[in-house]
Amino acid sequence: MRITEIDYPDGSKKLHDYDGPVPGPRRDVRHPVLFNQPPADPGHSPAAETETTSAVSAAIFNVRTDSLVFAIPYSFGLASQNAVMHRKRPAWARDDSPWSCYPDWQEISSVVTQRGAGIAVFVLAGFLGSTLPACAACNGPADLVAKLKAHPTTDNTVLLGNWYASHKQFDCAIATFRTGLKSDPKSAQLHYLVGLAFVVGNHATDALPDLERAVQLDPRVIKPHLLLAHVYDQAGRHKEAEEEWHQALAIDPKSETALEGLSQDLLGRNAYIDVVLLLRSAPRTEKFSISLAKALGNLNMLDDARDVLTEALNERPRSLPLSSALIVVLVKQLRYQDAINLAQHMVEVNPGSQEAEVQLLRILVLTNHINAARPIGPKLLAERPHDAEVLYLNGIVLRSVGDYPGARKLLDQSVAEDPNSPNSHYELGMVLVFLKDWAPARQELEKAIAMGAKEPQAHYQLALALRGLGDSQGAQKEFQAYQDQKASDESQLEASMKAAQGDDDLKNDKLQDAIGHYKEAVAAQPDNANFKYKLALGLDRAGDTDGERAQLEQAVKLDPGLAGAQYQLGYLLSRAGDSSGAIEHFRLAVKAAPGYVDAWISLSAELAMAGQFAEARNAVAMALRLDPESERAQKLNDQLSHDPAAQQNQP
Fold first, then answer.
1. CB distance 624 to 641 below 8 Å
2. Helical ranges in 542-592 per DSSP H
3. Architecture category of domain 1-19+561-651 in CATH
4. Nearest to 543 by CA among 575, 581, 520, 521
């Protein structure tokens, strides 16, 4: 066998506008509610929308938050914070968690020693929000104290230490376990229990030395890895946490605790391809489905994200976190009526749920269905008078129907409840302009812009306020900013629509139409690397290698982190005989997307053909780690293992 016989992955020329492998075949998963269109809201007249009102709809999903998906508005951020996982306080650590009451320590010990630490971490997490008391004197049961004194074994130490812990005497538990370590310093169990007691006693950072020692002494046991990873995450040491999650998954690839912890760390550093690779075969729990959808959404694989969430919602038809996530995806796809249908259905299947009603109010207001929203808003406001989002949404409703004093009152309250929302400051500033209260309007609008309000209308309204204050020069400057931003937004929207048409054409094998639409998108937005990459893929399908290469070179110059373009350019260079250039671009592809299996395989093959066998072996080993079932990686690995030339200088 010769290394040069290795072919590059066939899928390399079938990439989407996504820097990584597609996670399995597409399925047509349809939610039964989404496609039954109700009568249109009689109060909704798109033709009658004012420019300022339309700006609300246009601005949906432009503000990034810590909640579920991609780029979402202020309102979705508030609603999702109690529904979706958080890094600082995982979902299983919320006060309403079933583990939030304190169990008997012996139950924890039993879980730890018999069923693995995955559940133990769930138990412990419920206590991290409060300091648990320690007893001043260590007065354990006489029989256990006597038994340990007569027979100072590790087992007897564990019995007494567990008793102290079960009675919230954590200092005594730690002292007992440490005494046992003097006799048995290599006991991984005792080191682990010391760390466990520190964590439950709300001194997690003090647990690190003993937990680290536990995994050193017995790396084959999963529970210390899980707890150590959790403590690392709490301390902000996410790189070390990732390694411990990986170690736990090496012991138990199905550990949901490890899968959850690792996926959150990967999402935290925007490693979306790695999240897809990690969760594509994981159980479709609510949390995993949301995390997988978030990763797919950020990779612009919105159809796949929708399918994942729809499938999960079909299994859990009353889940508000899943419906909230799916609504975000539907709005990103401009499927507003489907989003409204789903929100209405969730109200019906969750009678009396305020969260479901807020979800419906939100989508109605932010898609400008004001008449449909009007009966819902006051009811929720009476139930949640201090909810910043409910105040904000009701303020928009009143502003839309011309009740500016009423809108001002509610938006003032919303800003008071949440002063960090640029959208609320913007809405309040706009209402103040309508009321011709120029100085406060200027203050609110300047705050909104400084905080990141993206609507061109923010500059327009500020221009009106400045003109009202007699500042003609400042007003002209803001009006120019409004015109420039509006023109840019319109150009971006037009280009995006052309690119979307090109995507549809390509799916329907209308190759020349697709290329034409991609060229129009590139002409409208010449600095958009992704549009150039799409055009390159179309030209590749048409056999125009020179045109494809030119577009790819421009794309990677504009965005060196566009892994798909780097990979495709490496493929072209390899085919042209430029091995060093191919290796360079394959390296850039895996640097930009470390979970990109095809790029690792191609890099390995190119390195082998260049005689760089040690690096080639490392690259294919990484591919197999990411996808152990990859036939291409297995084939290349076998060739590297048997080719005599590849064995030279084999370590």
1. no
2. 545-558, 563-575, 579-592
3. Alpha Horseshoe (1.25)
4. 575
Q: Which of 282, 285, 316, 289 is nearest to 31 (CA)?
A: 316
Structure letter (DSSP) for residue 11: G
Cα–Cα distance, 283 to 286 (Å, whole number): 9
Distance, in Å, from the CA atom of 52 to the CA atom of 59, rounded to the nearest integer, reads 11
What is the 3-class SS of 276-342, one letter each residue?
A: HHHHCCCCCCHHHHHHHHHHHHHCCCHHHHHHHHHHHHHHCCCCHHHHHHHHHHHHHCCCHHHHHHH
301 contacts 16 by C-beta, under 8 angstroms? yes
**What DSSP letter does each residue of 455-505 carry, written as one string?**
-HHHHHHHHHHHHHTT-HHHHHHHHHHHHHHHHHHHHHHHHHHHHHHHHHH
Residue ranges of the domains in the chain?
1-19+561-651, 99-269
251: pLDDT strictly greater than 90? yes
Query: In terms of Cα–Cα distance, which of 561, 610, 624 is closest to 590?
Result: 561
Structure tokens, 402:
């011309």
The residue whose two tokens read 């650590």 is 93
Is it true that domain 99-269 has CATH number 3.40.1000.10?
A: no
Alpha-carbon distance 524 to 373, whole Å? 37
Q: Are 271 and 263 in contact (CB under 8 A)?
A: no
**Residue 429 in contact with residue 405, Cβ under 8 Å?**
no
Cβ neighbors of 169 (< 8 A, separation 6 or more) are: 134, 135, 138
Q: What is the pLDDT of residues 342-356, one digit of tens each?
A: 999 999 999 999 999
Return the pLDDT at 119.
34
pLDDT at site 98: 26
3-state secondary structure 125-168: HCCCCCCCCCCCCCCCCHHHHHHHHHCCCHHHHHHHHHHHHHCC
- The model's confidence at residue 51, banded by pLDDT at 50, 70 and 90, is very low
Question: What's the pLDDT at 490?
Answer: 78
Mean pLDDT of the region 459-484: 93
Burial class (CB in 10 A: 0-12, 13-18, 19+), 50: exposed
Other CB atoms within a 10 A radius of the CB of residue 291 amount to 27
Which is nearest to 20 in space by CA: 397, 274, 324? 274
- Which pLDDT band holds residue 647 (cuts at 50, 70, 90)? low
- Residue 97 to residue 251: CA distance in whole angstroms: 27
Contact 573, 586 (CB under 8 A): no
* Residue range 141-200, pLDDT digits in tens: 999 999 999 999 999 999 999 999 999 899 999 999 999 999 999 999 999 999 999 999
pLDDT band at 558; cut points 50, 70, 90: very high
Pick 104 or 563 by higher pLDDT: 563
Percent of the chain, pLDDT > 90? 60
Would 1-19+561-651 and 99-269 be classified into the same CATH topology? Answer: yes
**Tens of pLDDT along 431-440?**
999 999 999 9
Question: What is the pLDDT, as a whole number, of residue 133?
Answer: 45
